[in-house]
Amino acid sequence: MYGDLGYKLVQHAKRTQALAHLPPYQTEIVRAMTREVRDLDKDVSDMLAPYAGSFNPASEPATACSVLVNHLCMRRNKRCLLAYHRVRSDKLEEMCWSGRDVLDIEQQQQGGQGNGEGSAMASEAGAGLQSSLSPEEEEYVRQYGDMLASYKGQWTDIDLTGSLEPPRDLFIDVRVLKDAGEIQTEYGAITLTKNSQFYVRQGDVERLIVQGYLQKLS
Amino acid sequence: MDIDDILAEVDDSTIPQETRDLQELTRTWVNERSAPELLPWPAELMDRVLERIRQQISLIEDRTSSTDPKSSFTLIILQTELERFKYLTRSLLRARLAKIDAFPLHTLTHAPTRALLSPSELQYATTHTAILHRHFQNAFLGQFPEGLRKMDDSSGGVNMVEGPDLEKAVFVRGRREAGVVIGGEGVGKEFLLGKGEVVVVRWGVVREVVGRGEAELI
């Protein structure tokens, strides 16, 4: 039925907004919707073909009505597709800002899934390797990341991607969750080994907290 | 000393430039975060603030090299202050970018809004819109019939380009001793907003007053 797929896609988009991660790209639905739009467009031109450009809506209300309905359906599909893609691209941008490497995470997830399924059903291991990003989205993330890096470069002093929480204390207590090796601070080098605890300057370790190496203790 | 004495001393002319800059930065930041639309880029203020951040950073670097324990206390105060300045600037820039990203096409095509951007923000907005458009184009728009490919379509009764909601309610505080007259469309009766008084009004009604600095958002 007209517009059914659009509704489905918008529901996907709605659900994506509430999720922390990005669900797989609905390649099938997107493809079916573009096909629907093309078919509808073909219907419209077929319907209008006999009139050879001199179509008068007033004299043929029935044809005019179906042409209108087809047009509205196409527009609706377009809006649904735009909404879906916009929600996803916003999500990807957010990930770029928070400093997580989207493409890296993707690959790790793929690796994990691939291993799990590979042992269970070796023949279908290939299916588990599918990324939840479409190739177009991967390209978009790459371009957005480049642009963000160049914009950020103009504001090195204030660290644009830094924390948006108002700073309270200069120094904080952190616990090391994963070995992170040695880091250099103004007060000398610190070796971050798992389960140890430090009192360090927030600015020095912010990145490591975001990446999950350290945990901030309150 | 009584609180009133302190307040009495607070007079614009006696306050040094640095303190006034901080107040102005804070006010700009709060205004920008509360206003539904983009506010003018405070070019001069930002130049001064960034210059001071640079100075502080190099000062702190100089002081750090001398390992005198007595100076480390002042150093902590300096660093805390620096972190706060950085936070204000960062948050201001991010708030602006969030608005630019929310209405990219409106920002770029609506001439008065476009004039409010800083050069680097303009570059960011242009590049972002371009890659977003290319992404949509590659994902599905490219396969659409010719007439439906545009991103800024306003035919069919619906304009695709969204702008900010200028009728959003905002909290405003008067800043002028003599008061500011608030009136116009959407306000039942003109009224005088005295200094320190707080009211809730539509943003469209007070945008000019806020722009002149006679009132501030909270």
Structure explained in plain terms:
Chain B: Its main location: nucleus. Chain B: InterPro entries: GINS_A, GINS_bundle-like_dom_sf, GINS_Sld5, SLD5_C, Sld5_GINS_A. Chain B: Residues 59-139 form the GINS subunit domain. Chain B: It is found in: Nucleus. Chain B: It holds the Pfam family SLD5_C. The complex is a heterodimer of chains A (218) and B (218). Helices cover 57% and strands 11% of the residues of chain A. Chain A has a three-stranded antiparallel β-sheet with strand order 4-1-5, with helices on one face. Chain A contains seven helices and five strands, in the order ααααααββββαβ. Chain A has helices at 4-18, 27-48, 61-97, 102-120, 125-128, 135-152, 202-210; strands spanning 171-176, 181-185, 188-192, 197-201, 214-217. In chain A, α1 (4-18) packs parallel to α3 and α2 (27-48) runs antiparallel to α3. With 218 residues, chain A is mostly helical. Residues 111-130 of chain A have low confidence and may be disordered. Chain A is elongated. In chain B, β2 (180-182) and β3 form a beta hairpin. Chain B is flat. Chain B has a domain at 165-218: Ribosomal Protein L9, domain 1 (3-Layer(aba) Sandwich), CATH 3.40.5. Chain B starts with a helix and ends with a strand. Chain B is mainly α and 218 residues long. Chain B has a three-stranded antiparallel β-sheet. Chain B has a two-stranded antiparallel sheet with strand order 2-3. Chain B has helices at residues 3-9, 17-34, 43-65, 71-102, 104-109, 111-114, 119-139, 203-211; strands at 169-174, 180-182, 191-193, 198-202, 215-217. The interface between A and B is large, with 42 and 38 residues.
Secondary-structure blueprint:
The complex is a heterodimer of chains A (218) and B (218).
Chain A (H helix, E strand, L loop, with lengths): L3 H15 L8 H22 L12 H37 L4 H19 L4 H4 L6 H18 L18 E6 L4 E5 L2 E5 L4 E5 H9 L3 E4 L1
Antiparallel strand pairs in A: 1-4, 1-5, 2-3
Helix pairs in contact in A: 1-2, 1-3, 2-3, 3-6
Chain B lengths: L2 H7 L7 H18 L8 H23 L5 H32 L1 H6 L1 H4 L4 H21 L29 E6 L5 E3 L8 E3 L4 E5 H9 L3 E3 L1
Antiparallel strand pairs in B: 1-4, 1-5, 2-3
